[in-house]
Amino acid sequence: MNLEKFDILEEKVGQLAERYSELKNQYDGFGSTIAEKDRELSALKEKIRILEEEKGLIKARLDKIIANLESVAFHS
User: Fold this and answer.
1) So what's the pLDDT on residue 47?
2) What's residue 1's pLDDT?
3) How far is it, in rounded angstroms, from Cα 64 to Cα 62?
4) What are phi and psi of 7, to 5 degrees?
5) Vertex 71, ends 70 and 75: CA angle to 5°?
6) Most exposed residue of 3, 34, 47, 55, measured as fewest CB within 10 angstroms of its CB?
7) d(Cα 70, Cα 9) in Å, to the nearest integer?
8) What's the whole-number mean pLDDT along residues 38-42?
9) What does R_g of the chain's alpha carbons equal in angstroms?
């Protein structure tokens, strides 16, 4: 009768170890996913920085063009 209890305990410990292994694999997978998303986020931040820089340059050029047009319009 006591051996039956050990069999049950052994089965439960085996199930627990298996579930722990599954959860550890999931956790490791989440870590990889987070690292990948961090890289994507960094790349997107860099792209936004470049686009904002380009936007500033375009705005400055447009302001210059508008100023030139205004000066031509007022002198005519």
Assistant:
1) 98
2) 63
3) 5
4) -60, -45
5) 115
6) 3
7) 88
8) 98
9) 32
Q: Give me the residue label for tokens 């860099």.
A: 46
Dist CA 15 CA 36 (whole Å): 32
CA–CA dist 17, 11 (Å, integer):
10
pLDDT in the model for residue 2 = 79
Structure pTM? 0.62
Q: Which two tokens stand for residue 30?
A: 């989440």
pLDDT surpasses 80 at 43? yes
Task: Tell me the two tokens of residue 40.
Answer: 């994507």
Contacts of residue 47, Cβ cutoff 8 Å, sequence gap at least 6 = none
What pLDDT is recorded for position 72?
87
